[in-house]
Amino acid sequence: MVLAGFAGMVDSGYVGFHSLTGLLIPCGPAGGCDQVLNSSYSHWGGVSIAWFGFAFYLAVTAAGIFGLSGFRQVFRFSLIATLAAFLVTLYLLYVQAFILQAFCDYCLLSALLVFVILGAHLALRPWNGTPESA
Amino acid sequence: MPKASSSQRKRSGARGKSGGQKKPSIAKPVAVLAAVVVVALGAAFYLQRSANDQAATAPAPSSQNTRSPISPEGWSKGNSLAKAVLVEFVDFQCGACAAASSRMSRIASKYGSELKIVFKHQPMQKAHGNAMIAARAAEAAGLQYKFWEMHDLLLQRQHEWAKVPDPQTLFLRYASELQLNLARFRRDLWTKEVGDKIYRDIMEGQMAQVRSVPAFFLNGKPIPNSRDEFEFEQRIVDGIRSLQ
């Protein structure tokens, strides 16, 4: 969970820094990153949604680290945050697939990480398991 | 490993290590978290800078003027067979671009027989949140042979759509005014082909080191967007004459 949170922070931070520069973001051979990240769906209240993603991954990473240190109840809060992130991820996948008809590699990686984090919460139930499960 | 109840957690949060072996300390996870965040942000920043550096060094620099990266292809006005080519990079949300559009119309009507004027997109997305969708609207109209009409509407009514959260509704109204097929316009607005076309213009602008808009290239060489209309026009006349 900590590793997934860390990877998510790097991924969303990378996209977030790119959004601040306004420059093009390198993309895979299929393209699509520019279309997705410059669409009207890519910003909420004028802020790139990458930074909201960063906040989520920061919270998950914090939950993992604090959970490993004995504060296991924080996993209940990170589960709620992860469920919210899961719903947002489903919505963003829908936007990419059916509205924009373009996919962004960084967004797909982020979606995968959210699925992994949610799976880890549901499978390991770390709030009442051993700290190592975080 | 320690097992902490919620009450233990609260106490440990307040007292730290002094509470005894069973109570977890808050200082250590805070320090670890801070370190992890710093490393993650550092890695993201480093990767972003590296990508920018690669993008900047990969193409041949245009400042040397050894070979212009500006192609004369795109939406054009004037004489499509003219030797002299004026390329303009435009952001539909940029105030200076709207101001320059009347000057460009005048130049097109005055020198249209000797000059080809080519339009290219350069939406400055950091500063102008609606610039990209405006570029898409122009391209979607272009697919129904109304690019220049939508171009003019977007620049003339920039004040209407520039600051609204979702300008798509307004663009649909403009499309309706231009008697476009609205279903097709709505569909084309988000197609990959339209996005790719704008993307290619943006890439071209980056390769030509376009840093502000509007940016002009006459016969492949950058010319300043002079406020002095006479000076700007004189450069164009010189550019036309130099190829005759």
Question: What does this 3D model show about the protein?
Answer:
- The complex is a heterodimer of chains A (134) and B (244).
- The model of chain A has no long low-confidence stretch (mean pLDDT 84).
- Chain A is an all-alpha fold and 134 residues long.
- Chain A has a two-stranded antiparallel sheet with strand order 1-2.
- Chain A has five helices and two strands.
- In chain A, strand 1 and strand 2 (47-48) form a beta hairpin.
- Chain A is elongated.
- Chain B contains ten helices and five strands.
- In chain B, helix 4 crosses helix 8 and helix 4 packs across helix 9.
- Classes of the chains: A mainly alpha (134), B alpha+beta (244).
- The interface between A and B is large, with 46 and 52 residues.
Structural features:
heterodimer, A: 134 residues, mainly alpha, 5 helices, 2 strands, 69% helix, 3% strand, B: 244 residues, alpha+beta, five-stranded mixed beta sheet, 10 helices, 54% helix
What class do helices, strands and sheet pairing of chain A give? Answer: mainly alpha
Q: Provide the gyration radius of chain B in Å.
A: 27 Å
- End-to-end separation of chain B in angstroms reads 85 Å
The helix tally of chain A amounts to 5
> How helix-rich are the residues of chain A, as a percent range?
55-70%
Q: Given the structure, what is the number of helices of chain B?
A: 10
Rounded average pLDDT of chain A: 84
Q: For the largest interface in this structure, which chains are involved and how many residues does each contribute?
A: A-B, 46 and 52 residues
Helix/sheet category of chain B: alpha+beta
Strand order of the largest sheet of chain B: 1-3-2-4-5
Distance between the termini of chain A: 6 Å
